[in-house]
Structure formats: C-alpha cells, structure tokens
Write a structure and sequence with these properties.
The chain is an all-beta fold. The chain folds into 2 domains: 289 residues, Beta-galactosidase, Chain A, domain 5, CATH 2.70.98; 136 residues, Jelly Rolls. It is built from 1 helix and 31 strands. The strands form 7 sheets. Strands 6-7-9-10-19-16-15-12-13 form a 9-stranded antiparallel sheet, covered by helices on one side. β15 and β16 form a beta hairpin. The longest helix is centred in the middle third of the chain and has 8 residues.
Length: 441
C-alpha cells in the first residue's frame, strides 16, 4: 500500500479530467460502473434509490482497484527512478494508472448484463508511463446489495528473481468523506453477535491501521451505520483508516476512507494469482450478515496442490511457480521459517496439527509456533519441537498442540521452523498442514 497518502501528493489533480467510457451492471438494489479509460477499475457504486456514488475518485490512486507489490525496492525501469517518497513502494503495478496521471490500457472487455469482465495492462504507480510486465483481470457480478468479484494478476516479468513476500491490497477500496467511521469485528467470538468496535487509529507515522477482522469483513460507514463493506472470504487481515475531514458524499473530494484486504504473498515472475472479494453497499447489519455466509465450518486446512495457499517464507526460497502437489522450500539460510496466512480458530476446536511433509536434512527436529489472537506475533512462550526424519520421504507428523498450556483460546497464525540453521542441499516437500480435533482425521 502507498504509505504517502495520495491526497498529499500535490502534483495530482483534484479531478479526473478524461472522457469516461463506462461499463455498467445494475439490479433492483445497486448500480456498478467500471471505467474503461482507467483499466476497468470500479469508479461508481450507488444504491438505485438515490444514485449517490460512494466511490472516491479524487485521483488515480483511489477507486476500487487491484494493486500488487513485489521487489526490487526501489523499483526502476527505462532509466527512471521513483521520487524519494515512493522509494519504499518497489514494484507496484496498479489498475487505474500511475502517479503521473497516465491511465492503464484495457485489453479485453465483456459485459452480458450479468457478468462483467475486464482485463488491462496496469502501470507502475511510482514511474511515468511504465507498463507492468503483467495483466490484471476482474470478473464482477451483482447479488442484491453485493458486488461479487474475482480478480487475477498474471505475471510475465523479465526479472526472474524470487523476491520476498509483500503485503498485497486485496483489493484497495476508497470511499467518500461521508463514510468516515472505520469498523470491523475484531474479537475472539466471531459470528456470535458480539459487539462491533471502531478500528483504533494508528500510532506513529503510518497512515493506516492493521487489524485482524475475525469475521472476515471491514466497513466504512456514516453516523447511521450505513456505508461500504469489504468482505474477504477466507481472510481476516485488514488495513484501513480515514484521511482528511468528514464531509459530504463527494466522489471528487480530497478526504477519503480506505480499506484493503491483506495477504502476504510471493509473486513469482510467471505467477497467475487469484483472489475473491465482495463489496456490500448497505447497513452495517447487512454487511455483517453477508459476511456470515462465509463463516468457516472447520479449523484451517492448507493443501498445497496448486499454490502456496497464502503461506510465505522468511530466509527461504522455493522451487517457484507453478506449484504441483507440494511446496519445495530450500534451507540455505539460517533461521528458515514458513508462515501461514492469518486465519482464526479456537485452540480447543483444533488440539492437533498434522503436517504431511518430506525432509532432506541432517537435522533431527523442527519447531511449530502459533500466534494467539491477542498476541502481536510469535514468541518463545508458544512453541513445540517435534522430531523429523531426513530421508526425503513423505511422513505424517502429528503434533499435540493442546498439550501445551499456552495453546488456549483464539488463534491467528502458525509458523513452521523446519530446521534450526542453514544446511547446504537441505530441503523440504510440504504437501499439507491441517488443524484438527483428532489425530486420526
């Protein structure tokens, strides 16, 4: 995400001065518009009863749009260097265009009145008219007050380096100044009608807050609890906030609310990476009720048959994309770590962890760690070491997490430390990680 707020970039215009070519979807509740001159980003969403657009369009860094991040940091191309305030952004193609007011180019568009598809070649946000070596696709459809979306980035980068995972905006959502209250359910009793709380404002220089939204939604609402909700099925990690002053529902206004679903992902040079999200335009009760459609029915299970399932690494590289049957990380740096995406589960519902993996190493044990819902990260208070066999064959490793006195209550993440130190030629093949009530399941 852009840490320098777009409304502070004085070079940007306060209005989008172009002849709009729009593509529309509508039902009896809402009307949605994407701008075909801005990469097919969502620039219009309104209830049919009043026609008031809630999406902020102050500059090309707003809208509801796709935005992805990778290395190198800083990113340079065609002899261009980013401005100092964008150096931290790195590789960052976005759907609408760039900081120099150049717009991304549409390469495909279909709309049969029910399903709208757009594809574009995005531009690198910090640079002047530099296309990303990738394409973005979005598929959109309506269901009452809900926009159902599927999105994909397909990389064709000439730089084949496997850069470390970066936080991705899945997607970036900007609403108008009337919707200045940032709310989400952040507690340890999701889907129990527990109280919704405002998102705390950030401390320090970072403009946005980060939090676990354990019901999988966040919203920008007005004083009457009406506004725009973002639902991220299978994900509970969010960022967002409000910048400026509360004001009217002005699509070209400077002040804005922001939300993004967060996933820390490796974007290989040739990856095809997809995610889903939903937008809900309505009351807070409607937003929360829609999120309940995605209520998990069991503790998290990650099977690495076709992708990384949102897992990322520290001090590790793997065999790259595509993923087939298993992950294949290599342990040639000290302190290698495999980290799960944020999820939410109750420890008491999943006292066992089953890891299907093969190890090729001289080392004899691995470690599993967990992050509690109330914790800020992983700590030495929550870990279990377990034996491994380094014969390169798949084995089923069962760890009784519930035997540890610190494995109690709500949980957010797992971390596997497969070996203790770097070892030339050492590797792991990871087929599945499963939290379960029984070691036999």
């Amino acid at each position: 995400m852009r840490l320098v707020l777009p409304f502070l970039a004085l070079s940007l215009c306060s209005n989008l001065l172009h002849a709009e070519r729009m593509s529309w979807l509508e039902n009896d509740r809402i009307k949605l518009g994407v701008d075909l001159d801005l990469g097919g980003a969502i620039t219009f969403l309104a209830e049919k009863k009043d026609g008031a657009n809630v999406i902020n369009n102050f500059d090309l860094g707003r809208q509801v749009q796709l935005s992805f991040f990778s290395g190198p940091v800083p990113f340079e191309a065609n002899g261009q260097k980013p401005a100092e305030h964008w150096r931290h952004i790195g590789w960052n193609p976005i759907q609408t265009g760039d900081d120099f007011k150049n717009a991304s180019r549409i390469i495909a568009h279909e709309n049969d009145g029910k399903l709208l598809h757009v594809a574009c070649i995005p531009l690198q946000w910090p640079l002047n008219n530099v296309p990303g070596e990738c394409t973005f696709d979005s598929w959109l459809e309506l269901d009452g007050p809900v926009v159902k979306a599927r999105a994909r980035i397909t990389n064709t980068r000439s730089d084949h380096t496997q850069y470390p995972a970066r936080l991705q905006e899945l997607p970036a959502v900007y609403a108008n100044a009337s919707f200045h209250r940032v709310v989400s359910y952040q507690g340890a009793k999701p889907f129990s009608n527990d109280a919704v709380t405002p998102v705390p404002k950030p401390q320090g220089k970072h403009p946005w807050s980060f939090w676990p939204g354990t019901e999988g939604w966040a919203a920008l609402v007005d004083e009457k609890d009406y506004g725009l909700g973002l639902i991220t099925p299978g994900r509970v990690h969010f960022s967002g906030g409000f910048a400026g002053q509360p004001g009217p529902n002005d699509t070209h206004g400077n002040s804005t609310g922001y939300l993004a679903g967060q996933g820390q992902e490796i974007l290989d040079h040739n990856i095809a990476y997809e995610f889903r999200y939903e937008l809900v335009l309505g009351s807070l009760d409607e937003i929360r009720a829609r999120a309940a459609h995605w209520k998990p029915t069991h503790p998290p299970v990650w099977r690495f048959e076709q992708d990384r399932q949102g897992w990322h690494y520290q001090n590790v590289t793997d065999s790259g994309w595509p993923v087939k049957d298993h992950l294949h990380p290599r342990f040639e740096q000290d302190d290698p770590q495999l980290v799960s995406p944020q999820a939410f589960w109750q420890a008491e519902a999943a006292p066992y962890l089953v890891i299907e993996a093969a190890f090729h190493t001289m080392q004899k044990q691995a470690t599993i760690m967990w992050q509690p819902h109330e914790g800020r990260g992983f700590s030495g208070e929550g870990l279990i070491a377990f034996p491994i066999v380094g014969d390169g064959e798949f084995h089923r490793h069962v760890i009784h997490l519930g035997a540890h006195p610190k494995y109690r209550g709500g949980m957010l993440r797992l971390r596997i430390d497969p070996v203790g130190q770097a070892e030339s030629g050492a590797w792991m093949k990871l087929r599945a990680v499963k939290l379960t009530a029984s070691p036999e399941k």
